[in-house]
Predict the 3D structure of the following.
Amino acid sequence: MKKIISKLNKAFDNKVRLGIMSMLMVNEWVDFKTLKEMLDLTDGRLASHIKSLEENKFIQVKKEFVGRKPLTSYSATVEGKKAFKDHLDGLEALLNIQH
Amino acid sequence: MKKIISKLNKAFDNKVRLGIMSMLMVNEWVDFKTLKEMLDLTDGRLASHIKSLEENKFIQVKKEFVGRKPLTSYSATVEGKKAFKDHLDGLEALLNIQH
DNA sequence: TAAAAGTACTTTGAATTACAAAGTTAATCA
DNA sequence: TGATTAACTTTGTAATTCAAAGTACTTTTA
């Protein structure tokens, strides 16, 4: 039990960050607006969670213009993918001991 | 994605509470000391998380004497089991979309 | 019989986290 | 010119988390 619990990463205990990382594991790049809509968040709330994931070096950012509009996109770093996978391993182990 | 995320319950975002509930899904009654050892916690930390789960009516308490020593045990309420199951369903759905 | 240890907490205080609401910048569209 | 879009940042408040210390009562040990 101690072993399982220790796999869980504090950076991913919040459901917004869990959702962001989940999106970025499945899609290489996801833009701000899509994340916002998929997770049903306000700008500020999304931005603050993105910031904390960036500070942990779990995601990276790309800014470009498409047509004439700015487009900010995010992707999980190698480090972020690894950390998230470890976290999911912990969750999976927890699911497995239920029943 | 919104649907998955909405299944996750704030009461279980902390890994200590995740661990406590997990123990109580698998074992009908677990005592204070065992929880403390299994989760590697200080008395105070365990007690505070237990308190929050009790306030949510997710666990119930039983106090007795065994031999001459006090023994406090906890078990998940029906409500607690349901809430935790829903949370695990959410986590499982999240695991499933990771490829 | 005095001191130490066991059981199960509670209290305090400080740090961190979370969030809503409002403000910002710079461009574009009507 | 005024509204809208895109992507934030700032502010302030509330909630959460935790370590550390304190409490109460009993039992064991020297």
In short: Chain B is about 60% helix and 20% strand.
